[in-house]
């Protein structure tokens, strides 16, 4: 099972150094101006909610619930904005219509492509292209992320990317299997099928014998291995 930590999918850490807080979450003058224009009320909750959304969006490439943001980030941004958070509820802010308006303004500010059909096409194309050269699910997801970011699309939830990567790998592998199968003769298909037939007395198949590792390089073992290689060459000649 591929986990989010195996991929480049952006996440918030639970703890940050002072330098990391300044680098990632300190609002600049343009962002402060945007906050003033986007917030229709002087409410500290509204201003704080907007700035948390904006700075986290910049880190994650998607909006998240402000009440799920680590407290260290919330406290830092509140301190920068000179807002007393003792009576503020970010859970309340997440349920307001203001949050929806703020997300729209942030997308405009970040020049996010909001064409959902184009985003779906980008996701599908990137997934299939990645699956054509990669088998590892994490690698496929990382390729999809690269294409979304380059095209200024918002990142979907990780579970959505995980399902897409798995589906694209299945589709691509089935396509390759079908192409290969169509190129094989009936005799070759029968030969390949017989490789996996288990011999009852020995409980092994010819495929098991093929995969056996070479033994220590004694004279007898070397002779046996040469016979094994010659046998593989004969098998190879039967595959058309």
SSE map:
Elements: H1 18-25, H2 29-38, H3 44-60, H4 71-80, H5 90-94, H6 97-109, H7 116-131, H8 137-150, H9 158-183, H10 186-195, E1 198-199, E2 204-205, H11 206-210, H12 219-238
Antiparallel strand pairs: 1-2
Helix pairs in contact: 2-3, 3-6, 7-8, 7-9, 8-9
Structure commentary:
This protein is mainly α and 240 residues long. It is 64% helix and 2% strand. A two-stranded antiparallel ribbon has the order 1-2. The longest helix has 26 residues, at 158-183. The mean pLDDT is 91.
Structural class: mainly alpha
Largest sheet: 2 strands, antiparallel
**Overall pLDDT:** 91
Strand fraction equals under 5%
Strand order of the largest sheet: 1-2
Number of DSSP E strands: 2
**Helix content class:** 55-70%
Bulk shape: elongated
Extract low-pLDDT stretches. Answer: none
Keywords:
240 residues, 12 helices, 2% strand
What's this entry about, in short?
The protein has 240 residues and is mostly helical.
